[in-house]
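WARN no homologs supplied; continuing
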Amino acid sequence: MTKNETTILKGVAILLMLFLHLFNHIDGMCHYFVLLGEEPLCLFMSRATNPVAFYVLLGGYGLYYVHKKGDKRRITRIINLFITFWLITTIAVIIFNCLGRNFFDNNFILAINVYLGFSPHINHPAWFLLPYALISLSSKHLFDLFDKYKPWLVIIAMLAFKLITSYIVSRGQNVLPHHEYIYTIVLYFHLLPTFIIGATIHRFDIVTYIRERTNPKFALLLLLCLFIARCTFTTSIFDTIYAIIFISLFLCIRRWKFVDLSLEMLGKHSTNIWLIHAYIYGPLLHDYIYGLKFTPLVFLGLILTSLIASIAINFIQRPLLISR
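OK structure emitted
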C-alpha cells in the first residue's frame, strides 16, 4: 500500500465519518428516498461506516512504515495535531461568543479538559483524539515489543483483546464518559489492537498479498456483499475485521481516476474535516445543512462546507505548525 493509497483511504474514511454522523439517527430533518420497513436506508448504511477503525488501522500502518525508516517527527506530528485542534476549537469558541452563546458554560475545568482532549464536549468526533495521540506517542515501544512475536499470534491476540475492550466500553457507555481520565485510559487500550494490527499488516505486506491473488471484479462483488452484511449489525465488535477486509478489497478494485483524485484531495484534508464537521452540521449550521432536505444534498453540503472550512484552516495554521 503506497502513501498515495493511504491518503485515498483516508478520503474514504472521512466520507464514512460524515455519512455516519449525518444519518445514524432519525430526526425528521431529511427526505428519505428509500425506506426499509419504517426506517430509512441511510440509517442501515450508517452501520457499515466504522470510520474510527479505518483511521486507527491506517495510522498503525503508516507509523510503522516511518518507524522502520527511523521516525524523527513522532512528537512533532502530535504537537501539530494538537495545534490544529486548538486552533479549530478556539475559532469555534470565538464564533460561539459572537453569537451570544457560552461554549464552556463558564466551566473552567471543562475548558481545560476540552483543550487537553479529555472531553469532546460539543465536538464529539474528537473523542479519540487524545487516546490516539497517546498511542502514537508510545508507538516506538509498542512496535519494538510486538515485532518480537509472530504475525498470526499478534493478530489473534489483538482481535481477542479488541473483543474484551469492546465489551467493557459497551457495558460502561453510560458511566465511563463521566470519568474522562479513566475513560481515556480505557479508550487507549480499546484502540490499541486496531493500531497494532495496522502495523502488522504493513510488516508482512498483507494487503499486497491479497491484491495479487484477488480478481478486481470478484473483489467488487465481495466488497458490496461485505458492505450489505455490515449494514445488518449494530455492534462495533467487528469494526477492525471489517476495516481490514474493506481496505484490502477496495484496493483490489479498478477505480476511475477522478474518483481517486477526489478521495485523495479529501484524504489530505481529512484531519481538519474530522475536527471541523461536527460544528458545521451541529450547533452552527445545523439548519443550513439539514435544510437541503434530500439526503444526497445534505451529504454533499456537509462535504463541501467542511472542505472549504478546512482550506481556510490550512491557510491560518500554516505559520503555526512545526515544520521539523
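Residues 126 and 275 are 6 Å apart (CA to CA).
OK
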